Structures are given as C-alpha cells and as structure tokens.
Amino acid sequence: MKLRFLGGAREVGRSAILVNDALLLDFGMLTANPPQFPIETPTPEAVVVSHGHLDHVGAVPALLSGDARPPIHWTPPTYELTMTLARDTLKLHGGSFHCPFTETDLRRVTQVSQTHGYRETFEAAGHSVTFYNAGHIPGSAHVLVDDGETQLLYTGDFHIDEPSGANGNVASNRGDSPDDLVSGQRLVAGSSERPEADVVLCESTYSDVEHEDRAVVEERFAESVETTLWEGGTVVVPAFAIGRTQELMLVCAAHDIPCYVDGMGKEVTEMLRQHPGFVRDSEAFRRAVSHARFVTGHDGQRKRIVDQTAAIITTSGMLSGGPAMTYIPEIRGNPTNKIAMTGYQVEGTPGRDLLETGRAEIDGRVMPVSAQVEQYDFSAHADRSGVLEFLESYRESPVLVNHGDRCAAFAEELRGEGFDSSAPELGDAVSV
Ligand SMILES: [Zn+2]
Asked: How confident is the model at residue 164 (pLDDT cuts 50, 70, 90)?
C-alpha cells in the first residue's frame, strides 16, 4: 500500500492522505491568515472522510470543481457538518482565495455523497473500508482501509474514556446526575474498538499532555458557574459549534445550570437531534436540548439576556467572531460576571490574549475585561496516556504519526517504547 501525505503531516490542519493514488482520506484546511490547503488537489477515484471538523473536511468541495465526480463516503453527521462548515466558509470568504470552492461545487457534494454507519464495510476505489466510532465528535470515525494486501487503520481524531480517578472504576454509563461517575465526554462514547490492522496512522495532537480527569474539570466548571450565578452575575461560555456547544449543554443540564445557546452551535444541535444514534445517550441529549434556551433573536435580545443570571454558551470558541462579539462587551465591565473558556486557545486569537493579558480585541476594538476569566480543558482528543493505551493494541504494527505539532518527537518516544514508528513529512510517499 502506498501513502502520500498531502497535508496534516507534522502539523495540525489540512489533513489529506492519498492511498494507492486512488483513495483520498480527508481533505481539510488549516485555519490561519491566510488559510492553507493541502499541497496539491488530487483527482482521486473516491474520497473517505473521518469527521466533520474544518481541518479534515474544509476543502472537500474543491475536489468537485473540475470534471471528476468521485463519490464521497462519510457518516451522516460528518456529511451534514461538512455542508454547514462549507456554507460558513462561503459566507465568510466566498469568491476570494480564502475559499477554494463555489456554491456549485457544494451542490455537487450532495450528489456524490454516500453515507455509512459504523461497522458497515463498503467499497471505495477498489478498497474495502469500514468506519468505527472514534469518540471525538458525533459521527467521527476510525477508518479501516483494506486494499487486499494491507489493512491500514487511520485513527482520525479520537478520544477514549479514561478510567475514573475517583475510585478506579471505568465509567461508561454516564447518567445525568452530577454525582454520577464521570470519565469521558457526555456527548459521545469514547473509542473502544480496536480492529485488526497491519499499519496504524495515528493522530498525536496531545502526545505530550495529560488531561485532568474529566469529572474533576466538569465539577470545577459547574461550581464556578453556580457561584457566579448565586452572586447575581452572568457567565459567557465561549464554545466551538461542533461538539463542544452540545457537551456544555449536557453539562449544564446535568448540573441544572440555566443556560442559553447561541451561534452556529444551535444549527449543529438541531442537526444532531435528527441523528440520535450518533450521541452517547439520546435521552440525556433530548433533555439537554429542552433544558437549554435557544437565542433566536438579534442583538436586542442578546443585550437583554446578559442581564439574567444564566450561562450563555456561544460561538466562537476563541472569541474571534460570532455572537460572543455582542456578549463580551456587554458583560466585561462587571467583576461579578465571568468568561469561562472551554477549549484550547490558539496563539494570536482574542481568547488567548484575554487569558494572558486580561484584554482582547473584540470586533476590532481592544477592550480591558474586568469580568473574571477562567479556562477549562474539555478536550475531545486523547491525551498522551490515551494515545498510548490505544496503540497498546497495535504493538506488532508499524505506527505512522501525524496530526500534531511534535510528530517526530512522539515517533521517537514510541520507538523508545519498542514500537516501529515514524513521522512522515509533508509531500512524503511511503510504502507500507
Ligand atoms: Zn477533529
């Protein structure tokens, strides 16, 4: 089997791997200014997509801008999320170099889309392909690719449930009482299947990070929000639209924290209601949706909401746009209020600046913030222990490391652990 790394090698963003010059795995974009795309646009016979995040699907419609119409294989949520993200990219950058596709290309995506559930083997460009739950966001998949000689397991982004630090039990059944044992994401069950594979292509986003136990993070978040609400304050919770917004809705429902939801996360929530099979506990999700209040109006309504003692879950997760641009200026002056960041803040984003300096450029204006600012790690990626636990099932197989800022270092550490491991570079062609 031949692999070519067109993006996502020794970097995070624009993931793209071409298998046997015929089957393309992911075709993402790297969010930067300007955005970056895979180093070439191939003409594959078929496309398989691991999950609906911009860095894995952001450039997919561009594959249809010529005469070729390769089928695109994905789970139903991944298809829907790709369409949502692509419409957003068109709205933000349509007609510029920052958007490599058109409205027409996007319509073609709907014509070539082929959706599959987990564990349903299908044929793509002469390969047998099977998706397994990757536990990262709804619809996310490990992708097993078999060309008749070699079985490649492409992990995509994944998350596994960690054994609870509280009493050593593995908590896989998450109820909605705050007293329940909590060990993974509420929205999706962690990756648990380890299909047989001859070679593994593994993400390594957090290969040098140990996440704090999720139960502890969640408890601390809930207590902090509740304290602010008791004091009469408002809490703005910036959150990514995909996965994080819904996870925080579930956390708020479980802890009975009144919450509003705003931004693109509303649309994603509505979509997930149509695909209950892709969330961990569809009943808990249904309750979280009815517990939350969705902001349907415009800035007038937003300005009234900030006077209420409630949490407001809103995009963007790094304060670089979205309704947060209305909420933050409204609440920033009062130290009783709080801004609870819920994801990693990339350097150079307003969210990162706010955490580090107490001020941030919001909607073109640098503003000091008197409200309290806190950071919580609700990561949807496996940490170092998680990745190692996953790879423990593949001791006999070569491991290729991608999707990380320190892929080469991690590959070396894996060799130290006895693995046959390497980190391909951008543009590399590798035979496995
Ligand atoms: Zn992802």
From this structure: low
- Residues 316/324, Cβ–Cβ less than 8 Å: yes
Characterize 9-41 residue by residue with b for buried, 16 or more Cβ atoms within 10 angstroms of its Cβ, and e for exposed.
Answer: bbbbbbbbbbbbebbbbbbbbbbeeebbbbeeb
pLDDT of residue 34: 87
Ligand 1 centroid to residue 381 C-alpha, Å = 8
Beta carbons of 333 and 281 less than 8 angstroms apart: no
pLDDT at 177 over 50: no
What 3-state class would DSSP assign to 178?
Answer: coil
The alpha carbon of 55 and the centre of ligand 1 are apart by a number of angstroms equal to: 7
DSSP per position, 267-322: HHHHHHHT-GGGSS-HHHHHHHHHHSEE--S-HHHHHHHTTSSSEEEES-TTSSSS
Mean model confidence pLDDT for the chain: 94
Mean pLDDT of 397-412: 98
The alpha carbon of 50 and the centre of ligand 1 are apart by a number of angstroms equal to 9
Least confident of 66-80, 173-187, 317-331, 397-411: 173-187
| Predicted confidence (pLDDT) at residue 173 exceeds the cutoff of 60 | no
| C-alpha separations of 129 from 7, 153, 180, 278, 380 in Å | 21, 10, 37, 19, 24
Separation of alpha carbons 52 and 54, rounded Å: 7
What's the gap in Å between 268 CA and the centre of ligand 1?
A: 15
Q: What's the gap in Å between 362 CA and the centre of ligand 1?
A: 26
Ligand 1 center from residue 305 Cα (angstroms): 31
pTM of the model: 0.94
Cα–Cα dist 214/166, whole Å: 11
- Ligand 1 center to 205 CA (angstroms): 10
- Distance between Cα 204 and ligand 1 center (Å): 12
227 Cα to the center of ligand 1, angstroms: 32
What's the pLDDT score for residue 162? Answer: 79
Dist. CA 187 → ligand 1 center (Å): 14
Q: Separation of 80 CA from ligand 1 center, angstroms?
A: 15
34 preceded by a cis bond (ω within 30 of 0): yes
